[in-house]
Amino acid sequence: MVDEVKLLGVSGSSYSRRVEWALRVKGVKYEFIEEDLQNKSPLLLESNPVLKKIPVLIHNGKSICESMVIVEYIDETFEGPSILPKDPYDRAIARFWATFLDGMCLDAVRKGLWSKREEKEKNIQEEAYEMLKIVDNELKDKKFFSGDKIGFVDVAANYIPFWVEIVEEATGNVLITSEKFPNLCAWIDKYLKCSEVQENLPDRDMMLSFFKAKALAEIGAK
Known about the structure:
The chain is of the alpha+beta class. The protein has helices spanning 14-25, 42-47, 67-77, 88-113, 122-138, 152-156, 160-171, 182-193, 195-198, 204-219; strands at residues 5-9, 31-34, 56-59, 62-65. The chain contains 10 helices and 4 strands; from the N terminus they run E-H-E-H-E-E-H-H-H-H-H-H-H-H.
């Protein structure tokens, strides 16, 4: 039986790109269905009735939701290079860091990037720096989070190397510098040089235009 794999997503979304990366690593053929989040399709609403969000993987008619849950499913279901470590302890540690990066860290970084650079909002950026420092410390003396190749945790952090830098340019709120976070910046450089990453990034100019318009509307950045 030939697997039927569809991915409901948005091409500019870091969440969708996580799933696409995993599918490509495993060599899985899939159909990408672009969603309009302002006018969600009946298929999306039917496939993810609880959260009504992308991405959604539809594998042989069955829906799986939430990007990192989907990445785990892909790793367990399809043949190919392992994404999560084989050792149970290492897998647990990888899940811990992925949860941190996809939760507390992402929330703090997002707020820091979209703050209005006013005195009263300095604490928002300080919280982002605190979260990023934790990530920087974890990457000390490491090429990638789990070894010599990109894995589960690196995928959870995929918004940092590409999307954060673009939003920094759009808003003028620069969070990540080599002076503050040398290990994180070294990781970003190595991550972006990987061919499987370069092949799985949206158009930078398109993304920058989108975020500049959003920044102008939301925080008055020019």
